[in-house]
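User: Can you write out an input/output pair for a complex, sequences first and structure second?

Assistant: Here is one pair. Inputs:
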Amino acid sequence: MALKMVKGSIDRMFDKNLQDLVRGIRNHKEDEAKYISQCIDEIKQELKQDNIAVKANAVCKLTYLQMLGYDISWAAFNIIEVMSASKFTFKRIGYLAASQSFHEGTDVIMLTTNQIRKDLSSPSQYDTGVALTGLSCFVTPDLARDLANDIMTLMSHTKPYIRKKAVLIMYKVFLKYPESLRPAFPRLKEKLEDPDPGVQSAAVNVICELARRNPKNYLSLAPLFFKLMTSSTNNWVLIKIIKLFGALTPLEPRLGKKLIEPLTNLIHSTSAMSLLYECVNTVIAVLISLSSGMPNHSASIQVRPAQGRAPLFFSFFQLCVQKLRILIEDSDQNLKYLGLLAMSKILKTHPKSVQSHKDLILQCLDDKDESIRLRALDLLYGMVSKKNLMEIVKKLMTHVDKAEGTTYRDELLTKIIDICSQSNYQYITNFEWYISILVELTRLEGTRHGHLIAAQMLDVAIRVKAIRKFAVSQMSALLDSAHLLASSTQRNGICEVLYAAAWICGEFSEHLQEPHHTLEAMLRPKVTTLPGHIQAVYVQNVVKLYANILQQKEQAGEAEGAQAVTQLMVDRLPQFVQSADLEVQERASCILQLVKHIQKLQAKDVPVAEEVSTLFAGELNPVAPKAQKKVPVPEGLDLDAWINEPLSDSESEDERPRAVFHEEEQRRPKHRPSEADEEELARRREARKQEQANNPFYIKSSPSPQKRYQDAPGVEHIPVVQIDLSVPLKVPGLPMSDQYVKLEEERRHRQKLEKDKRRKKRKEKEKKGKRRHSSLPTESDEDIAPAQQVDIVTEEMPENALPSDEDDKDPNDPYRALDIDLDKPLADSEKLPIQKHRNAETSKSPEKDVPVVEKKSKKPKKKEKKHKEKERDKEKKKQKEKKAEDLDFWLSTTPPPAPAPAPAPSTEELSVNAVTTPKHECEDAKTEAQDEEDNAEGQDQDKKSPKHKKKKHKKEKEERTKGKKKSKKQPLGSEEAEAAGEPVQNGAAEEEPLPPESSYSLLAENSYVKMTCDIRGSLQEDSQVTVAIVLENRSSSILKGMELSVLDSLNARMARPQGSSVHDGVPVPFQLPPGVSNEAQYVFTIQSIVMAQKLKGTLSFIAKNDEGATHEKLDFRLHFSCSSYLTTTPCYSDAFAKLLESGDLSMSSVKVDGIRMSFQNLLAKICFHHHFSVVERVDSCASMYSRSIQGHHVCLLVKKGENSVSVDGKCSDSTLLSNLLEEMKATLAKC
Amino acid sequence: MIQAILVFNNHGKPRLVRFYQRFPEEIQQQIVRETFHLVLKRDDNICNFLEGGSLIGGSDYKLIYRHYATLYFVFCVDSSESELGILDLIQVFVETLDKCFENVCELDLIFHMDKKFPALPEGKIQGANARELQMSEVHSAQICRHIFLLDSALLTE
């Protein structure tokens, strides 16, 4: 053994290690490939040895080579060998190599399952860690399924290092094995409140990533994230959460209202640019979602900021745009870029607010940085108006000329077209100008967007009737010019415009000046080098032209001329008949026969023009792109059923050029291979010729000149007959667009002058003095009359088309599988597959206990199964309602930003120290208990009178809201908030049993100010609680200089800024204008949390109004109840059972009589007021769990009798427990 | 999410390549080359964001890079990442490397890609963890896993 080891190490001394390899590669610069192949041979030798160290070394080198681009998949098995080494050093090399080179197609990967499981449950956290790390890179659906349960157990590992990794890798597992999401989600959610910040941020990351793809499933987590956002100090986590909120707000406008305040606070307070930027971004998203939720949003926000919250939002909006402008003006290019990026988000909904920064954006177009130019281009889209369109496009055209890279140029091209064509050519006043712009764009070599230009040409020519004449003349010039044809050989997209040109010239041939000339241009031999679909259009439109010419000639009585044209057709069409493209061939041969027939008729002096032109009678109208899709399938029609048994693939070719055009994109790749493969073609032709030669039935034609060069394989050999052109080869009208700009300016100037004159006259008649106004250049867009009367034909839509725009989702989206409702309670069948103990060695590991426990907990379930199943439906409904209601509830108890149904104090005096629940809540609770009864009744009568019930409910609701409105002066905007909230409540939660409650309880109030507060256990620090105090100014004066001074007790101490003494007050970081409320948060450190306690405090402030300022004070008492030290912590039933079994908890119990409330609501109350979560509920018995900020476990068993409720509690601290139970008793007594 | 982390030198030689999405080796090299050409064209004083390398993903993806002396650090990320955040991350990453190697330079990355370590001293692993922790606080689903790998790959002893 020892000898072997020595031998091994000696062997290794002569091996090349990684460093030697790297050095070697550097020394063999000339023949690197050769050297590396040599090394790979060596490595192969090394891999054959038994010594694991040698193997690891070899794998290590391979990893390096992989990075250099060498395929190392052949060594996959050796990598697995190294992965299974017992030594960590080697294991890690193995995992590293695996993570770099393994993928789903690696077949040996299935051998790793057990090895990885073993490593995951290894006692060494580093083994586990390295396995997790590696697994994350090469997890496959099989691995995910087999290991999901193991990884889930690791999420509760004792070491945060492992927990964090396990949480992160769960994301990959979800992606590969979506079924695991639901069973694992509760635990993942739990990790959001993990004491370790690293784990917490990992969980935030995973959930954010999940929620980004399917936001609506994660709406119910919003309260939790909100809490995290207000309590977290980690910028990275904050950024993620804020981004997530940005994704959530479009789904829930009320959430946005809640967010705005804390976000703006962050904007003002943070020093981190990244955080600031994300905040601004999300505020924008919020504002957009809010404004799109309001009817007439643009009006209410921009024009009429007079009502409700609109002015507030408006100012936020201004704030954002201002901040963005600062960013864009910054010298730091990165900030400039981001500013523009965010601007473009605003642009979509509020183009006006961006338009005011036009100068800045145009300036950015000249930036030397391409990224910035691209962003500015995006923004331009919203900048244009009738007035400046020409000017902007002109500027873009100069950029097109200057642009060096094709990507940027292509981008410019699409933007020009986008800008011009947006909202149905709204901003184009002169279509001649636009056509010439399009023609100018055809000069671009090598652009991919030829089809875009072509589509525009077609669209404009078809839909703007007035422009057809001009368009036809331009198009015929295009057809005539050689540059497009020449470039077609380079297979770039610009020849696509010929498609449009040919079609336009054919369809509107009556406008052609020299139809004969154009006809010749279209029949040039060079045309056959164009792609097939374009040739097909050529062929088709040649006939249209021909028909037109025939008619002209016959009307003029030139029979010879007509025959000459026919002869031309007969001569030239065969070149198309021989086309390799099926479509071209078919059309051409068909038409050739037709023309030959016409020739015969002509020879007999029969007038044919009339009949020929009826071939193309009628007009083709544009069809809306999605028209076909929008026709609803009539009832009883099964589109998939066969009408007849299929004979063969009959392809129905749509004759409409437009439709063909739309197919073109898919068709092109089909054509390409056939074109590219000239050799193949030649071979086929040869074969065909051979076949034809042997076929006695085939009539051999004498080889025509065209035929000869068809046989040649390459286009280069085609003997092109140069046609003597009378027209210059230059595309006419190139500089025309500039002329138009000038013309347009003159025209406008004239118009303006006329208008001014008219106006002056009018004004002089009416009033003098305001004349200056009219001469200002604030002329609105509408004032500019279009150059020609334009009739834009709308696209045709089928009858009874559905107006909806279905958003077709990509069925291949891997994230779609993760669109899973997470709020539904878990069904029994939804468990992660648990691997049975196959290998004895792994069962030693501690984590393996868990499945056993799960089995235990399964047993009682089975007993109750029958009973449960009956109730399940009800349960599910209720649970769902509860969730919805929880969220609604949270959203409506908005603290500062939208203080909607905040506690409405009755006129009675409220005790200054807000012990647990204020009285009004209790009242609410009563009405609600009645509600509940009504509900129960209603449910009995459910089937009989649902209508009745609904009405009743609505009435009650109305009454309640009325009562509230009466009872209290509503804070600003709350009515609107309610109004916004109402429809959702009505729709989603009709049977909502609990009215909104607030966790904010009244602290103190006087005529100036009202204080409400909420005490929450801090998630991160032990023994700290956060007190959120909402201050509401109810006077007409401005409150400033607010200071909070609290007398510390031995047990509780306020966290003060550094350097201030115990007796100093802590300033409140804001001022309050009249009617406004805001929230301030203070942290208190608590030594012992087993007892409730009260702290005395004073709020001092200066109230300033027109008459002067007064110094005011308000005393209050902060009540820290034991419940406020508890944090809602979800708990698994297995963990719960374990906890109870452990025996280190002391027990105590209380019983309360006279309870009428339903059990469900009772539990909800306990959860809400005392921060518990339900672990399991069976009938009228529930187990609940919570954890104190100092880590005491509190378990409850709540049972409901006839009219009583008994609560048994177990807790690691008996004092805490008895105090808690007392508080609970007080709460329950009010039920 | 981060799609890829590429580190290459001024001549486009890859120094560290990590993809979180599977690409065959030759495509990986192609991506590195393309990215290199995209980045090389850009001056040092223009912005650090680049849109659309054609090979990794569509319009949702961005390249965010920094240039340090002879090395380019390029992160390919999608829209769920904060742009400035990633820039900071690159900075943190480089600082971490710096701590590892004391004045990190290209040669360090070349030679210490991985090394034979008889046994990693416990302390060093702890150190690596500390850094990793800092990183993961810093970052997204993918990154921390990655950094640990990097760390372990780069750690020399």
